[in-house]
Structure formats: structure tokens, C-alpha cells
């Protein structure tokens, strides 16, 4: 009988050990699953978010004072062109570059405006062509001096021919 009690007692010990191991495995598995689910969301959220840059704001500046030049093809009486220019950039550093190189920019623009013919500027197409050439001239100066064109657009805020 004593031997039977030992056999039964050993079996119950084995059963307790098996339950304990199974319980530990279940607890470990539930912790692992919880960490994967919770931890996976935390990692996925930053990776899933798209970094959206705020659109850059345009910076407008005037090229003061207005440009006044003689036009070609005015006949016997002299003809004049007076233009007030505004320009736009998205890069604040360009504002300083324009200020620094303003004498060169103004010189090149005076030369450009002085080559214009009255007949060409009388049409909307001629004015648009001059606006594009003005932008290109400013961009060339900035490209030459700073390595980047900088100015995105040029606008005539005043355009007078006389």
C-alpha cells in the first residue's frame, strides 16, 4: 500500500508540474501576442504617417525705383517706357541675394528694356514676352552669382509707354 501511495503521489506531482509548465507557456504566449499587437501598432503608426511639408509661402519684393528707358523705333519724337517690377520667390535667402546683386540686376534689365521696340510692346504678346525675358535675365544673374535661379516669377505692377 505504501508503494501505491508513492506512485499516486508521484503522478500528482507530475500533473502539477505539467499544469505549471502549460500555464507558463500560456502566460508567455499571451505576453508575446500582446507585445506584438501593441508594439506593432506603435511602430507602424510613425512609419505609416506621411511627412507632409507645409507649402512654402511666396515672398514678394519690389525692384524699386521704377525702370525708365528710351524705346527704339519712336520716330522723330523720343518714346519712353516706365516699368515697376515685383518678383516672387519661395526662398527667403533669395531676398538677400537680390539686394546684394541689385546693381547688376538693374543694369541688365535697363539694357533689356532699352532694346525693346514700341510696336512689339503695344501687344499683349509683346508684354508677356518681355515679362518672360525679364524673369530669365534676373534668374541668369542670380544663377551666375549664387548658383541657383531663385526667382520664380516676375510681375509688372506698372507698365507705361509714352
Structural notes for this entry:
This protein has helices spanning 2-48, 92-100, 102-114, 118-121, 124-146; strands at residues 59-70, 80-89, 153-161. The N and C termini lie far apart (130 Å). With 162 residues, the protein is of the alpha+beta class. Mean pLDDT is 84; it is low at 41-45. The chain has 2 domains: 1-52; 59-161, Band 7 domain (Tetrahydropterin Synthase, Chain A). It has a 3-stranded antiparallel beta sheet. The chain is 59% helix and 19% strand.
The CATH H-level superfamily of the largest domain is Band 7 domain
Structural class: alpha+beta
Order of adjacent strands in the largest pleated sheet: 1-2-3
Q: What fraction of the residues are assigned to beta strands by DSSP? A: 15-25%
Total helical elements: 5
Question: Judging by the overall fold, what is the CATH architecture of the largest domain?
Answer: 2-Layer Sandwich
Q: Overall pLDDT, averaged?
A: 84
Secondary structure topology:
Layout: H1 2-48, E1 59-70, E2 80-89, H2 92-100, H3 102-114, H4 118-121, H5 124-146, E3 153-161
Antiparallel strand pairs: 1-2, 2-3
Helix pairs in contact: 3-5
List the defining traits of the structure above.
19% strand, 2 domains, 5 helices, 3 strands, 162 residues, Tetrahydropterin Synthase, Chain A, alpha+beta
Quick recap of the structure?
The protein is an alpha+beta fold and 162 residues long. It has helices at residues 2-48, 92-100, 102-114, 118-121, 124-146; strands spanning 59-70, 80-89, 153-161.
Amino acid at each position: 500500500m505504501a508503494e501505491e501511495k508513492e506512485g499516486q503521489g508521484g503522478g500528482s506531482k507530475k500533473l502539477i508540474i505539467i499544469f505549471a509548465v502549460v500555464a507558463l507557456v500560456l502566460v508567455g504566449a499571451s505576453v508575446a501576442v500582446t507585445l506584438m499587437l501593441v508594439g506593432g501598432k506603435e511602430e507602424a503608426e510613425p512609419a505609416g504617417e506621411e511627412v507632409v511639408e507645409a507649402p512654402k509661402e511666396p515672398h514678394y519684393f519690389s525692384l524699386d525705383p521704377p525702370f525708365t528707358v528710351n524705346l527704339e523705333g519712336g520716330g522723330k519724337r523720343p518714346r519712353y517706357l516706365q516699368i515697376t517690377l515685383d518678383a516672387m520667390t519661395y526662398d527667403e535667402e533669395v531676398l538677400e541675394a537680390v539686394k546684394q546683386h541689385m546693381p547688376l540686376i538693374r543694369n541688365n534689365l535697363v539694357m533689356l528694356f532699352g532694346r525693346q521696340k514700341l510696336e512689339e510692346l503695344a501687344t499683349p504678346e509683346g508684354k508677356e514676352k518681355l515679362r518672360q525675358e525679364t524673369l530669365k535675365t534676373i534668374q541668369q544673374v542670380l544663377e551666375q552669382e549664387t548658383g541657383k535661379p531663385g526667382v520664380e516669377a516676375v510681375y509688372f505692377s506698372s507698365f507705361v509707354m509714352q
